[in-house]
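Review session, final week

We close the course with one last complete record, chosen because it touches almost every idea we covered. It is Threonine efflux protein, a protein from Reinekea blandensis MED297 with 206 residues. Go through it on your own first, then we will talk.
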Amino acid sequence: MTFEAAFSFFIIVFIFGVTPGPGVFAIIARALSTGGRSCWLLAFGMVVSDILYLIAACFGLAVIAQEWGEVFLLIRVVGAAYLAYLGWKMWTAPVSSSALDGPTGSRGAVLAFIQGFTISASNPKVILFYIAFLPTFLDVQRLSGGDILLVSVLTLISLMMGLMLIATLAASARTFFETPRKARLLNKGAGSIMLGAAGFLLLKSS
């Protein structure tokens, strides 16, 4: 892969990562509720799932998006239900508490990672996206382990940059919600975003 191809790949993945969808909505809602730093493991879970799809695409496994349609449907339903639960928690959260307060420490980190992984894994179209444009940058008939490692690292950096940029921008809006009334609006707004993400995830065409 040439430098020009690698740079173009990086930019396209970045744009793909910040395109509105369930993952972006979840990042925004969490950043509004608990700040940008709390989104790191959530975003990392999404990115790990994306990279697994990317690797599958490199090996020409697009067929799984069709042959395992029922499995992906189940994952999508479970993911949507979880997002709806989080949305309800945020909507009903007391003003004095963070909308996404939950287990802290290692348990909280694992749950955040699993949440992000589930959100991304529930969208089998990700693998189709990678298959659609990978041939533009790589000779897919002569892929080496180094090529796959390179595109995986580029994807990791690009997606994390995009998602954390969104988290930072969303978190900056928290300063406008310091009074109890505004904090209540923040909780309900973040909850609405998460519920919207759940509906988007559940109702999107397979």
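Two points worth writing down before the exam:
The chain has one domain: 3-203.
Residues 3-203 form one domain.
Good luck, everyone.
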